[in-house]
Specification:
The chain is α/β, with parallel strands linked by helices. It folds into two domains: about 35-215, HUPs (Rossmann fold, 3-Layer(aba) Sandwich); about 245-360, TPP-binding domain (Rossmann fold, 3-Layer(aba) Sandwich), CATH 3.40.50. It has helices at about 50-65, 80-90, 110-125, 135-150, 260-270, 280-285, 315, 335-340, 350-360, and strands at about 35-40, 45, 50, 70-75, 95-100, 130, 155, 160, 165-170, 175-180, 185-190, 210-215, 245-250, 275, 305-310, 325-330, 345. A seven-stranded parallel beta sheet has the order 7-11-6-1-4-5-12, with helices on both faces. A five-stranded parallel beta sheet has the order 14-13-15-16-17. Strands 8-9-10 form a three-stranded antiparallel beta sheet. Helix 3 crosses helix 4 and helix 5 (about 260-270) packs parallel to helix 9. Flavin-adenine dinucleotide binds near residues 281 and 316. Belongs to the ETF alpha-subunit/FixB family.
């Protein structure tokens, strides 16, 4: 096991309990080099690097100011190369962009990706490998860790030193400080909401990192056939992505039906917000499960989180308690959601949402 020390703190909101002094020259255990170089496994879509992957770069930067950061992109076709150009200028700390262009890597399947990262690690000898804690990162990273025979540290929310990380445990009710004492590379998944990045404007002046093709001549996809890409389905919507939205409006079981849930959707539309749901609302079929927030759903930390008819079960809080402002509307004054809410309103959502819809100005 990589964990050497654990500090726990039960608390109302996610406030780190332990702040060890950080030092970029910190060194402990076996085979940990003072030179820090990080490989970031990046996801891309529509010719752009995903914001969660840029957050992984921000996390790499937090490991050490002197970190040499390489971003690895894989896929095939023109959108990969567009994404590579985007990656080269999306964060000033990126030292180089590595591009693996192959039909075998056209889809982000764990098996070929793991072989790829293994190959790139053998060439580059990175001290750290980081991915966002997305479905992709959670899929690929453990497989790579097994190939490299190291133990990954997952869901990191704070980096206190090159081998010292904070991660939530017990559905976010306690924070655990983990010292990685294994061999290189130290592998992490990070919660992107804990490493926010400023939106990149088109006219922003940013260094452009060199883009290098990965030599795939020795790349053997030995695991071919273990999984196959079938298709990708997602809802066509103009709403912001739940994982990155500034405002999230969430509805719970109290909405009673998919028809009534449209009240939440209308409110989200007026506020330019993403829609979230509790597991009870998802299980009842009001909305698809990609909208579920919580321990077994998405982890969000928007500037404003509005919860309507949500009891505040521990598993739901695990996905939203780090939001900057939490507003809760519930007709039960003792609902646990009020313990984490910054603003609470005891009332009936079927009266309050229509009133909000009437009084809020139209979205420009
Ligand atoms: C292993 C595991 C994982 C889980 N993962 C998740 C997860 O990821 N996300 C998640 O959300 N849950 C998760 N759950 C389920 C969780 O425990 C709760 O059951 C769920 O969050 C409850 O959803 P809810 O608040 O919508 O429903 P309820 O708990 O039924 O609460 C409904 C609330 O609405 C209020 N209400 C009712 N009518 C009105 C009204 N007209 N106006 C205003 N308020 C009203 C009630 O007072 C009540 O507080 C998980 C459970 C387990 C065991």
């Amino acid at each position: 096991m990589a964990a050497l020390s654990i500090f726990r703190a039960l608390r109302k909101r996610a406030i780190p309990s332990f702040s060890p002094s950080s030092s970029s020259s910190f060194s402990h255990g076996t085979a940990i080099s003072r030179f820090v170089s990080t490989l970031v496994l990046a996801e891309h879509e529509g010719g752009s690097v995903k914001t969660s992957s840029v957050s992984a770069v921000a996390a790499a930067k937090a490991i050490s100011e002197e970190n040499s950061i390489s971003v690895l992109l894989a896929g095939s076709g023109p959108s990969l190369h567009e994404a590579a150009s985007h990656a080269a200028s999306c964060h000033p700390s990126i030292s180089q962009v590595l591009v693996a262009d192959s039909d075998k890597l056209a889809y982000p399947l764990a098996e070929p990706w793991a072989e790829l990262v293994h190959l790139v690690q053998q060439e580059g000898g990175y001290s750290h490998i980081i991915a966002a804690s997305s479905s992709f990162g959670k899929n690929v990273l453990p497989r790579v860790a097994a190939l490299l025979d190291v133990s990954p540290v997952t869901d990191v929310i704070e980096i206190s030193g090159p081998q010292l990380f904070v991660r939530p445990i017990y559905a976010g009710n306690a924070l655990c400080t983990v010292r990685y004492a294994g061999a290189n590379p130290c592998m992490l998944t990070i919660r992107s909401t804990s490493f926010p990045v400023a939106p990149i404007s088109a006219d922003s002046k940013c260094n452009t990192a060199p883009v290098t093709q990965v030599d795939l001549s020795t790349f053997i996809e030995v695991t071919l056939g273990k999984s196959r890409y079938l298709n990708h389905s997602s809802q066509e919507t103009e709403r912001p992505d739940l994982g990155n939205a500034r405002v999230v409006v969430t509805g719970g079981r109290a909405l009673k039906s998919a028809e009534n849930f449209k009240l939440i959707e209308k409110l989200a539309e007026k506020l330019g917000a993403a829609v979230g749901a509790t597991r009870a609302a998802v299980d009842a079929g009001f909305v698809p499960n990609e909208l579920q927030v919580g321990q077994t759903g998405k982890i969000v930390a928007p500037e404003l989180y509005m919860a309507f008819g949500v009891s505040g079960a521990i598993q739901h809080l695990a996905g939203m308690r780090d939001s900057k402002f939490i507003v809760a509307v519930n007709k039960d004054a003792d609902a646990p959601i009020f313990q984490v809410a910054d603003y609470g309103l005891v009332g009936d959502l079927f009266e309050i949402i229509p009133e909000l819809l009437e009084k809020l100005p139209e979205k420009k």
